[in-house]
């Protein structure tokens, strides 16, 4: 085979993804098959794809994705010749995905241990310079705790970096999450996460799991994402609260089914400085909290 | 529910490359509502291709989700001077579907899959719109210009997700022959379809 035939052969196989082993196993060989970084058969292969019959995916897939992307950072643009063919962009994404299991918090540490450390818990070092995570909301959280009707013993450490959240939750548990049934909630979450002043904070939940609050002061809205919360018996429900100067105000209830991720856009308006708390209440919810919060996150 | 596109097939099929590229540019800037638009314009194409390769509905949904997350993450790196937006996305979808096949399918499943399915272009599918019919027939016609052996190798590779060694085994020919058939088949296809790259 001539050198040109060899290159064309590699290009054809790369475009068809027919090379044995993973696509990225031999990046040099793939690179050598291109002309100025472009595989001359990739457009042809895409035409084969476009000849297949389109099939509408289930509507739930869109809702799920809108929520996912609201919480998933984009890769920075790059200027040099590395840019995006599907193949060359893959390693960076896969690295994030692959790293996620090791980035996750240990599932459920005994509440007493973490509670003792809570105010001083060091923030996990963030791998992302552009992180908007707000760490250690200690003083505000303590203020909120003081406003609670009962002494709060188990406010937990708020110490997690966005890398941990994005890696562990947003990408790691794609398939077993439970999106809300109302599709517009996904749009609302997207709007909150996309607001110019959007912020987020992560906290551990007493009894296991993590909770992430995403909020926008401008919109006066927030959403809570819970990962790994235990399902409750039928006569109980999780209830959300905005805790401000006036004390706790209900922001709706939510259920958790099975293991995985749930998220919920809070009802009502968020005021600056509000803390968001979650309690376990009798089914149907309560007018005022009847138990200690299992998690409280200061905004 | 899974069904062939009917609600808005024209948008799905005829979204011009310029329109898609413009939406993708907004996605690249972090515009989440634009991502919703992009999804609406392309999801049936992506899902259709992934399901063609994987057959299994649940896995196809998972992979489609992976593809769109990757589109979101890598949109800032899309370079319109290197190819069409739709092709960029279809390439990603095909690669992820093939990766899933390689990762999850045991050899026996694969043989059954090949035995059971028609791996050529779906001539008998009723295309839902004129637009799709045209694209479909253009490719189908181009495929007829390949030799039967080339068509078989290209179809098994693209629509069946078979690798070189699997093709060699399935067709009972040496690896070099497989590579040559794929190469010559793709050259002929490219020329017949008149695509630039």
Describe this structure in words.
The complex is a heterodimer of chains A (299) and B (197). Chain A is 32% helix and 19% strand. Chain A contains nine helices and nine strands. A four-stranded antiparallel beta sheet of chain A has the order 2-3-4-7, with helices on one face. A four-stranded antiparallel beta sheet of chain A has the order 6-5-8-9, covered by helices on one side. In chain A, a hairpin with a 5-residue loop joins strand 2 (199-204) and strand 3. In chain A, 46% of the residues are buried. With 197 residues, chain B is an all-alpha fold. Chain B is globular, with a radius of gyration of 17 Å. Chains A and B meet through helix 1, helix 3, strand 1, helix 4 and helix 5 of A and strand 1, helix 1, helix 3, helix 4 and helix 5 of B. Strand 1 of chain A pairs antiparallel with strand 1 (3-4) of chain B, so a sheet runs across the interface.
